[in-house]
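Escalated from tier 1: S-adenosyl-L-homocysteine holo job.
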Amino acid sequence: MTEARIQGRAPAPDADAAPQATRLIGLDRDDFAAVMAQLGEKPFRARQLWHWVYGQGARDFSAMTTLAKAFRARLQEGFSLDRPEAAEDTLSVDSTRKWLFRFVDGELCETVFIPNGERGTLCMSSQVGCTLNCTFCHTGTQRLVRNLEAGEIVGQLMAARDAIGEWELPSQGRLLTNIVMMGMGEPLYNFDNVAKALKIVMDPEGLSISKRRITLSTAGVVPLMARCGEELGVNLAVSLHAVTDELRDVLVPINRKYPLDELLKACRAYPGVHNSRRITFEYVMLKGINDSPADARALVRLLKGIPAKTNLIPFNSWPGAPYECSTRPAIARFAEIVNDGGLSAPVRSPRGRDILAACGQLKTASVRVRGRRRAAPDHG
Ligand code: SAH
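Tier 2 regenerated the structure:
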């Protein structure tokens, strides 16, 4: 009797005692070759598998009909095709869609899909949380939990394609056409994983999103900007937001490390930048802080000589935010001055505000509870 009870409390014999399956999503061409070597398969099998995983988005090894049954069975035993799980899936009235993705360790990130006519942009995260502490950004109030792995970055795209049913439509116009690395985190602080992920995403025999349709946004991690241009060749966006070091030190504190002068030098030298491929300078419109006509004129002067366009982002508020959005007339006046100065200055219309999916609003609920509150910045 006693013995039976003790046995009852002991862990049940584990039927799944096999070592954890290796996730294929996030592995690159070299990794696939290594898997073939490990399994004693011919190298050309790697290409077939690649096609099924990243080209077809197969979710089940049994669907991989060009592979021998025995090979499929071995893949089934040791590998998985798992994507991050959608813990939440929210649709805005303007059809922006936001997912809260959960990873194996329980950490969460947000990913936003923004359909816009012919184009559909997926805004992906590079980190859980962020270390930058930009004072107007909600994500910045969340402490960094960790970098995302390459597989967790590619996984956001795969899961989004699953959700919008994109795999079945290869020959027709795609819904998801563009990617912006503008979600949670600073992509250049997680460069290796972001680079590995984007190379997988750009592979023409796989997910096949061209570098011209990918934009990476940085707050200005100067030492990594050249590598980003050389190794990835993606479009660059820079979160500028201020025209003086004094103000930028407050709004985008990484400026204390890499001031405007160095940042703009790195922009001038960004590989592949020219008039048909301009750098986008993001500029959040904050009432009474950075939105005066004098600021607009200074912005034009600052960007002289750089193949640049600006993107004016009306500030998206969040609970406890220490700023307000500039008034419509102030934004219109600012845009007019920048336009007259020869720079394109579209005002970004906020998308998905009702589901907290707009720029700078991403912040996962789990961390919101734990997150510290920050004091309002003091910059007079
Ligand atoms: N860390 C990167 C990418 C993430 S932020 C970067 O700083 O560029 C994506 C863009 O949204 C940045 O330009 C950021 O400054 C802007 N942003 C952040 N919070 C915002 C808010 N509350 N309203 C409007 N834009 C915001």
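The two ends are 76 Å apart (CA to CA).
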